[in-house]
Structure formats: structure tokens, C-alpha cells
Amino acid sequence: MLKLDHINKFYGMRQALNDVSLELPRGEIVGLFGENGAGKTTLMKCIFGFHGYRGAITLDGEPITTKNIAKLSFATSEHSFFPNLSAAAHRDFYANHFDGFSDKRYTALMDFFALPKHKPLRAFSTGQKNQFEVILALSQGADYIFMDEPFAGNDIFNREDFYKVLLGILEPHETVVLSTHLIEEVSDFIGRALLLRTGSIIGDVTTDTLDGEGLSLVDYIKNTYSYRADRVSRALHTLTGEDE
Prior knowledge:
- Helix 3 (103-113) runs antiparallel to helix 4.
- It is globular, with a radius of gyration of 19 Å.
- It has 244 residues and is α/β, with parallel strands linked by helices.
- The chain has helices spanning 40-47, 87-97, 103-113, 126-139, 156-169, 183-186, 207-213, 217-224, 231-240, and strands spanning 2-11, 14-24, 29-34, 54-59, 62-63, 72-76, 144-148, 175-179, 192-197, 200-206.
- It has a 6-stranded mixed sheet, sandwiched between helices. It has a 4-stranded antiparallel sheet with strand order 2-1-4-5, with helices on one face.
């Protein structure tokens, strides 16, 4: 169990996370949604210790340290690899540093995305770099796999096929936490949705619950965010003086 207790994060005087408490059992696929600046990336970085914070984050009751950090992996669109090394060199590095590294999964995903194995990562396109981040995160052998906007630069066919592949390869003990704005695309893929707004969790629901209530994920998010359907017509009226 990954547990967050009353997490608060400040950037100077601005509060980026506001008293976030959360439990993430193993074996879930979780969508993390929110507006730009809602705190999604900050939350993930706090879990990995990249940012200081107030509160407590534990994994199976223990603080996250060098002893258990390998149970967590992170695919970030900011890219965390070595740009001058090839994919093959990264594979060797990960295999040497992570006992649970899956060469079978690495090879299969490299073939799926048709990525070059001996080209330096700096020569990859943005989409290819993001694909490779996902491959490393999924091959590391972690129980908790965090993905922060991993599909930037990828076409819809790659994304849709990847969802299917991911569902087929995940083990029962693996949890994926996916931060994305592609709500409709992942609505049939995730089992739980977390909503962040201005650093606070304002929604936490399973997709089974939504199905039982006859709500789509998009409708739930709009309702929870108190989305104003007239915002477009109001803006156009202000700009043009005419109703749309």
C-alpha cells in the first residue's frame, strides 16, 4: 500500500498541494486528472522525493528511501534518461541496477514501438523519447508505475494500441497512476479516477461506480469541477458583442 498523509507543498507563498491524503493499493489503474497547474506533477514528484513537503508518504508502512524506491518507477515527459546513451545502453544500465528488470517486457515494448536500439536518445523524436520513458518505467520491475503525460507527441493509433498492450501485460500486483488530459481515451482503460483542483483532491471514484450511476467519466469531471457550459458563448459575446 502506498499511503499519503496530509501532504502539503509550498512554492514560496503559493500552496501547490493542500492537505492531500490518499491510499493506493496494489493492482489498480488510476487516472489522475486536473487543470493545468492543479498539482498533478507536483504530487508525483513529492512521492519520489524530488520535492520537499510536509506530511508523510509511506510504502507498506515504511518511508520511501533507497531501500524501497525501486518499487516505484516514473515515466515523465521531462525525460530522465541519459541523452548520449543508446536504448541498448539504457537496457544494460537498468538490468544492472534493478533486480526485477524484465528484459522480456523491454524487448517486446521496443518491438511494439519500433524504436531503434543503437541510436543515442538525443536523436529520438519527442514521441519516441516519451515512448522510451514508458518502456523503462514498465520494465524496471516496480510495483507502482507513475506516468506523467506520457503520450505527448504520439498519434492516436499508437496510443490506442498501447492501452490494449498495457492491459495485457500488467501483473495483478502492479499499479499504474496515469496523469493525462486525454480523458475520453482512457475512460475505458482506468478503474479509478482522482481529481485535483488547486492542490486539493476534489474527487475519488471508481469507474464501476460511475457505470452504476449512468455517468461517463467526462460528465463526472465536468460536474465535479462545476464546469460552465456557457463559457464559450459568454467569451464570444464579450469579444464580439453577439450571442453564439
